[in-house]
Design a protein that fits this description.
Layout lengths: L2 H19 L4 H11 L5 H14 L2 E2 L3 E3 L4 E3 L4 E3 L3 E3 L4 E3 L4 E3 L3 E3 L4 E3 L1 E3 L13 E3 L2 E3 L3 E3 L4 E2 L4 E2 L4 E2 L4 E2 L7 E4 L4 E5 L2
Parallel strand pairs: 1-4, 2-5, 3-6, 4-7, 5-8, 6-9, 7-12, 8-13, 9-14, 12-15, 13-16, 14-17, 16-18
Antiparallel strand pairs: 10-11, 18-19
Helix pairs in contact: 1-3, 2-3
Length: 189
């Protein structure tokens, strides 16, 4: 049985348990999440889902979150259904991140929704204001391992981002992009 069928079969129980976790203080939920973060396996993946279901802006059905995934500012993170976020990803939703349905994000990928500015010369760059930029990953997207997606990017539906790419511009629908910075390599048929 695949993950989607298994989730559908047990949806009522999963959603009920996640509603119970809603009554725990936020720091307790995140403490549990921190403890189970390095653990692999279906039970730990399910626990991560149950905890994040109440913490994210929205979290659809059948969302797999692998071990050692770092999710920051989850209250500004929207994730659709049938999404997989694999081991070692780093996602900071300070400027908002929306990941639609049927998206696969391979291991060690970073998605950032802000950037540092350097306009005030009286302050070190690290203390200058942040520039926020919403990131949208539309439906039916495959993001390869080790990809970096910068703030303000829209990755259009049915696209593939090649492993190791740095995405600095919007990605059109139906293409394979790759490189540093990522450029269109070919159209998908």
């Amino acid at each position: 049985m695949n993950g989607r069928d298994s989730f559908s079969k047990h949806r009522f129980v999963i959603i009920t348990i996640s509603k119970l976790f809603k009554y725990l203080p936020k720091f307790v939920n995140f403490s549990i999440l921190s403890l189970i973060s390095p653990r692999d396996g279906k039970v730990f993946s399910l626990l991560r889902y149950i905890i994040l279901k109440n913490q994210c802006s929205s979290l659809g059905d059948n969302v797999y979150i692998g071990s050692n995934v770092k999710l920051i500012n989850v209250e500004k993170l929207k994730v659709g259904s049938n999404v997989s976020i694999h081991t070692g990803c780093y996602i900071d939703a300070l400027g908002e991140i929306e990941i639609e349905n049927n998206v696969s994000i391979a291991h060690s990928t970073s998605i950032l929704s802000f950037d540092h500015t350097w306009s005030n010369p009286d302050l070190p760059i690290k203390y200058n204001e942040l520039s926020l930029g919403k990131v949208v990953v539309e439906s039916d997207v495959w993001i390869g391992c080790g990809v970096r997606i910068l703030a303000g990017i829209i990755i259009s539906q049915r696209s593939i981002i090649a492993a190791g790419s740095v995405v600095t511009k919007d990605v059109p629908s139906g293409v394979l992009v790759g490189g540093i910075p990522a450029k269109v390599i070919k159209r998908l048929s």
